[in-house]
Amino acid sequence: MKVVVLGGGFAGLSALNFYRDAIVIDSKEYFLLTHRLVDVIETGNPSLATIPYPKGIVKANVMSVDFKNKVVRTSDGDFSYDKLIISLGYEQDTTRVKGNVQKLENLEDALAIRTKLPQVKSVAVLGGGNLGVELAGILREMGKEVHLIELQDRLLSFMSKESSRFAESRLKEMGVDVLLGTKVEEVTPEGVRTNKDLVKVDMAIMAAGLRGPKLIENLGLSNKNGRMLVNDYLESMDYEDVFGAGDCMTTKSFVPMSAQVAVQSGRTAMENALGGNVKFAYKQAGIVLRIGSEYFGDLMGRFVRGSMAELAKRVGIYRAIKMVESL
Q: What architecture is domain 3-90+212-273?
């Protein structure tokens, strides 16, 4: 069985771990720990968020897919397949905000932000999810004036209210200006214009606006916010022998974007590609964040902080590293 996997992130490598004879194609030479991009901004050390790919991962850009003849066309030649798994991750849609906003999507973005920070005194972080909350904390520790702007009426709206309250309280203690229920209308040379006021800053960083990669739309696949639509078995709604996994896919009932979900979907997609009939059902065991030296989050349905939260965070990173090293 010739299985080709597009994308070597959490979902793609999880699929490869299930079936080692698969061909994985990725545009990078390394596995990216996306949740550690803020650590790269803090330290300037890219190795904190990258792990070199093992031999065998094909480095190439996907140009197109001939679904009828089952051929993937790339910058490194054509690859035929019997089954195809699309696990291309996510992109940030900066077009949602008018003006000059700095995205934080990949390693290059993190290093670019790090380079610009010495000339910056004040920063607006747009989005109060995981990325925005951790980024706001790190920027404040670096001595910047930080404004965290969130459209919803609480931070981390997808987590427990205890986590939301803790994040808001901790950031405010650090001196972060937390603006809830606030809509960003435009980024101007003077700052960020919202539905309430003008927030004067030197830089605006996008920490929200996640969507599926544009390639999904370019391939003509049915999608929702750029995320490939699949059925409950992760099969494409458009083509036979094509599956979706990770952040680039969703069902009609919505699938959250997270490393845990990506790993689970990568395995299920590969199992079904090889002839299985497994209905995808994800389980989000926990979400842990760090603000300064404080670790906290939701673990197995309850709020945790301190040493237990830190251990959970480190175990998650350890497992990701081992997933790559085991290949």
A: 3-Layer(bba) Sandwich (3.50)
pLDDT of 320 higher than 90: no
Question: Which CA distances in Å does 187 have to 103, 128, 179, 226, 309?
Answer: 13, 17, 16, 24, 36
Residues 6+ apart with CB under 8 A from 319: none
- For 81-96, how does the pLDDT look when each residue is reduced to its tens digit (9 = 90+)? 999 999 999 999 998 8
Mean predicted confidence (pLDDT) in 109-135: 97
Report the interhelical angle of 10-18 vs 259-273 (nearest 10°).
40
pTM over 0.90: yes
Do the Cβ atoms of 312 and 299 come closer than 8 Å? yes
Is the pLDDT reported for residue 113 higher than 90? yes
* Fold match between domain 3-90+212-273 and domain 93-206: yes
Residue-range domain boundaries for the chain: 3-90+212-273, 93-206, 286-325
Q: What residue type is 105 in one-letter code?
A: E
